[in-house]
Amino acid sequence: MTQDNRYRVRQLALVAEKLGPVETALTEVFGLKVAHRDPGVAKYGLENIVVPVGDQFIEVVAPIEEGTTAGRYLERRGGDGGYMVILQCTDPAGRNARADALGMRIVTVIDRDDYDGVQLHPRDTGGTFLEIDHTSGFDQDDGPWYPAGEGWQQAKQTSVTTGIASATIQSPDPQTLAERWAGILDRDLSNDAHGLSIPLEQGSLYFVEDADGRGEGLSEIDVLINDRNHVDQAAKKLGLPGHKDQLVIGGVRFNLLSA
């Protein structure tokens, strides 16, 4: 396969029944700050936060109305959990041509002067929502990223947590799912101790067996930690579930890796 289009894991989204508890856990445990609350998501019956993790982001959305897509996702997966993987790419034309060649339906198109993106239909991608966006500054640590708002860099905090190393998607059939995503991204699959993976220019995507009976979805996020003592103390204070090198926040297992 070719690698003409470069990719990085730029943003991962969680969906929660209530925004507040997940916001508190993310910011206090990982020493992070909220950069943006997008008023535009209200038209979808949602509220959200976007939190920088180094030069990547974690978003949390929560329904504020009945009958939302996010609310139905909560029902299907039995509570809070991973919701969406958002990649940044360098070749939007190639991205669009690839999706079209594979017959992928596009459910959302983002078209701005400085930012464009496509959200692919989850029934075509499988696993979880996949969005692939493009903006300038792919190789810039503090490059622009429209979903995080203007000036997101002012909220960047790296004394405790410095970045996202990978995202893991669970499935009853991880092999087929991994092959499908590798086809979408035009990448080869790798296999290591953690499972099937698609290595990207920044970050990796892993595909594993459904471990908790909740069905397909974004199930784990590997975060890079500078100050493990801070994480352990804050998690203990909040009474977060987990063990050793893993915490559960917003229905997602966060694996704690040394930065």
SSE order and pairing:
Blueprint lengths: L6 E9 L3 H12 L15 E8 L2 E8 L5 H9 L3 E9 L2 H10 L4 E7 L2 E6 L1 H4 L3 E7 L25 E11 L2 H12 L4 E3 L2 E5 L4 E6 L7 E9 L2 H11 L3 E2 L2 E4 L2 E7 L1
Parallel strand pairs: 1-3, 4-7, 8-11, 12-15
Antiparallel strand pairs: 1-4, 2-3, 5-6, 6-7, 8-12, 9-10, 10-11, 13-14, 14-15
Helix pairs in contact: 1-6
Structure description:
- The chain has 259 residues and is an alpha+beta fold.
- The protein has a single domain (7-138, 151-258), classed as 2,3-Dihydroxybiphenyl 1,2-Dioxygenase, domain 1.
- The chain is 22% helix and 39% strand.
- The protein has helices at residues 19-30, 69-77, 92-101, 122-125, 174-185, 228-238, and strands spanning 7-15, 46-53, 56-63, 81-89, 106-112, 115-120, 129-135, 161-171, 190-192, 195-199, 204-209, 217-225, 242-243, 246-249, 252-258.
- The strands form 2 sheets. It has an 8-stranded mixed beta sheet. Strands 2-3-1-4-7-6-5 form a 7-stranded mixed beta sheet.
- The model has no long low-confidence stretch (mean pLDDT 94).
Key terms:
2,3-Dihydroxybiphenyl 1,2-Dioxygenase, domain 1, 259 residues, 6 helices, alpha+beta
Please estimate the helix content. Answer: 10-25%
* CATH third-tier fold name: 2,3-Dihydroxybiphenyl 1,2-Dioxygenase, domain 1
Which structural class do the helices and strands define?
alpha+beta
Largest sheet: 8 strands, mixed
Estimated radius of gyration: 17 Å
Strand content: 35-45%
Tell me how many strands there are.
15
Distance between the termini: 31 Å
CATH class: Alpha Beta
Shape: globular
Uncertain parts:
none
